[in-house]
Amino acid sequence: MKNECLICMAPLVYLDTDEMMECAICHKKENSKTRCVNGHYVCNACHMAGLDAIIALCLASTSNDCKIAWENR
Ligand SMILES: [Zn+2]
Ligand SMILES: [Zn+2]
After folding, report:
1. pTM score, two decimals?
2. CA 54 to centroid of ligand 1, rounded, Å
3. pLDDT tens digits for 4-52?
4. 6 in a domain, yes or no?
5. Is residue 5 part of a domain?
6. Helix segments in 1-73, DSSP class H
């Protein structure tokens, strides 16, 4: 796994204990120890399925809100 955020490219932080995270892309909630310094979490399914698509969408978007770009694709 890459050690930077898929959404904002910020560094990831690794927590000592699991926390309930909401995926920034599909909004699924699950326990994880990993999120970025800005609080984004991306679940494994989205990581695997959409890496390239997400990056392309975010690069093409003039908005910082990649969630909207994703939902309107
Ligand atoms: Zn982020
Ligand atoms: Zn997800």
Report:
1. 0.63
2. 13
3. 888 898 999 999 999 999 999 889 999 999 999 999 999 988 888 756 6
4. no
5. no
6. 44-60, 66-71
Report how many domains make up the chain. Answer: 1
Q: Which ligand sits nearest to residue 58's alpha carbon?
A: 1
From ligand 2's centre to the CA of 62, what distance in Å? 22
Q: Output the CA 43–ligand 2 centroid distance in Å.
A: 4
pLDDT of residue 17: 97
> 23: helix, coil or strand?
strand
Residue 9 in tokens:
């490219």
Q: Is residue 59 part of a domain?
A: yes
Q: Which residue has the higher pLDDT, 34 or 3?
A: 34
Ligand nearest to the CA of 11: 1
CA distances from 15 to 37, 42, 56 (A): 11, 15, 29
Evaluate whether residue 37 is within a structural domain: yes
Containing domain of residue 23, as a range? Answer: 12-71
